[in-house]
Design a protein that fits this description.
alpha+beta, 3 helices
Amino acid sequence: MTNPIRPTDNDARALAETLLQTARTAALAVVTSHGGPLVTRVAFGRTPDGRPLTLVSDLSAHTAALRSDPRCSLLVGDVSAKGDPLNQPRLTLEATASFLDRASPRHEKLAAHYLRDHPKSKLYIGFADFSFVLFTIKIGHLNGGFGKAFTLTPADLG
């Protein structure tokens, strides 16, 4: 059998960028303290320089999991009402999470940026138990539709 992963090209990079630009939510997969997987939906955003981020509460199981094991995965790509969902593009990012300290000088600027795309988070962004999580991408897996699989490096996604 031949390798099903196609060589990464500019069309694949452009599709990945579109998925990242348009995503407002993502499925976040983490490893729990007992070693099992946990998947949840989170708000998805990007820093001004394009790094993926989300806003999490300390009350959430996924937050505790990320604090104990920062390895995670994000899946972006909306499913439209028409067509086969498995033929619609999606991007999985293997990443490492890091928390931004609320006292950091970056926090206020990042909060203003985040609120432009997630205005409803204004209700809770200032709560003491909420923190920004920044993701460092290790590798990306793009499924552009049936028979269109690509592996993308951080450079391809940046």
